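[recover] target loaded
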């Protein structure tokens, strides 16, 4: 009797080869296609392809709502961007797919799970670390590592076996897409000196093709979660999809990033994340209106760790649970409206308001009605500067200190 193996299947080159190779190795491959916001046509095509290639069974699970509520929104609350650039669209999808792989494996009585990630990519780490955290008893087959097939060899093998593929030798991009973003790599993009060709972009227009007039939109947040656009309340999945289209039409969301992978190499990555770029900027601005100075200065440290844990595949680490608890505690005040201007590849905040605003006009104004106690400044400055005053009295004030340091360095 053949052993069952649940394969995370995308319909791309690597996972299509995996179905074929697993069958040849005597396994009974069960293809799992998880809908995280890919175009419906592509999912239909993937289902048809899995059956044609030889999957014993194919699962198609719609996980868009769970992805949005339990993965995208926690990331948004944390303003998560790896290396201050990448909104983690692919990275945060992997732990959810892993969770569903375990669910299907238990349902099918499978002892194995598999993925088609390469040996020098991040996704192998995200899948395997998540799978070990959720079901350490399951065996893991990393098909790309096991058979070590290059991308060129894989294309040739796919043609030989009659595996239908959308990529070609002259256009061999590896693409991952979900509701939070689209990532593109391989091909000419492997040369960081070359400008990304226009054909790599699908969600965003070139700036020259965008409208000549700016577009203003208002986004309402409730405890850190976006609820409506221009006063129209929307389902979370609809809201993100709407922003992807709207911001993409204005050329917003293109990211060309030289990224430091977990495995220790640098990789040139191109992303399209229109909704993520707009929502993170709006959310962060609203936080600046309603959170205290100390909280605003400390939270970025936590956000960086959240981003690293997400990127490194440690979504189910206890530290992530603790970080999420902290971030959630800060969001109870993050309710209000942010007005954005979309124009020529840029999303700018041009207004914000909140019932929890800590901005006191009567304190900030320099005009009539100023209630700031100016007489308090003298005492404050005396106490604030006291440590430096004492230091200067004891050690003197070396006006030539900078010059002396420069001489020493020379």
């Amino acid at each position: 009797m053949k052993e069952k193996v649940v394969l995370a299947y995308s319909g791309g080159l690597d996972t299509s080869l995996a179905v074929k190779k697993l069958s040849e190795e005597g396994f009974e491959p069960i293809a799992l296609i998880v809908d995280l916001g890919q175009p419906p046509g592509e999912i239909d095509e993937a289902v048809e392809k899995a059956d044609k290639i030889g999957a014993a069974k194919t699962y198609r699970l719609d996980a868009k709502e769970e992805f949005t509520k339990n993965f995208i929104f926690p990331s948004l609350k944390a303003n998560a961007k790896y290396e201050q650039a990448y909104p983690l669209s692919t990275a945060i999808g992997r732990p959810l797919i892993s969770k569903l792989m375990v669910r299907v494996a238990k349902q099918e009585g499978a002892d194995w799970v598999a993925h088609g990630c390469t040996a020098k990519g991040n996704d192998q780490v995200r899948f395997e670390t998540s799978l070990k955290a959720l079901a350490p008893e399951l065996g893991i087959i990393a098909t790309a590592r096991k058979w070590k097939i290059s991308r060129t060899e894989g294309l040739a093998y796919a043609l030989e076996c009659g595996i239908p593929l959308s990529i070609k030798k002259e256009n061999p991009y590896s693409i991952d897409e979900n509701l939070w973003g689209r990532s593109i790599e391989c091909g000419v993009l492997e040369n960081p000196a070359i400008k990304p060709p226009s054909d790599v972009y699908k969600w965003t227009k070139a700036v020259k093709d965008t409208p000549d007039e700016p577009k203003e939109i208002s986004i309402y947040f409730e405890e850190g979660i976006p609820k409506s656009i221009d006063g129209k309340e929307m389902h979370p999945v609809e809201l993100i999809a709407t922003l992807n289209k709207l911001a993409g039409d204005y050329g917003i969301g293109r990211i060309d990033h030289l990224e430091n992978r977990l495995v220790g190499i640098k990789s040139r990555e191109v992303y399209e994340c229109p909704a993520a770029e707009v929502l993170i900027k709006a959310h962060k601005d609203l936080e600046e209106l309603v959170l205290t100075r100390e909280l605003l200065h400390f939270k970025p440290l936590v956000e960086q760790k959240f981003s690293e844990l997400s990127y490194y595949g440690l979504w189910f680490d206890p530290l992530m649970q603790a970080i999420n608890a902290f971030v959630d505690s800060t969001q109870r005040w993050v309710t209000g409206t942010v007005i954005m201007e979309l124009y020529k590849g840029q999303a700018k905040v041009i207004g914000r308001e909140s019932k929890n605003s800590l901005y006191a006009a009567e304190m900030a104004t320099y005009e009539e009605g100023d209630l700031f106690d100016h007489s308090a400044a003298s005492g404050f400055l005396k106490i604030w500067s006291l440590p430096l005053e004492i230091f200067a009295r004891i050690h003197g004030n070396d006006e030539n200190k900078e010059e002396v340091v420069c001489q020493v360095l020379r």
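[recover] notes: The chain has a mean pLDDT of 92.
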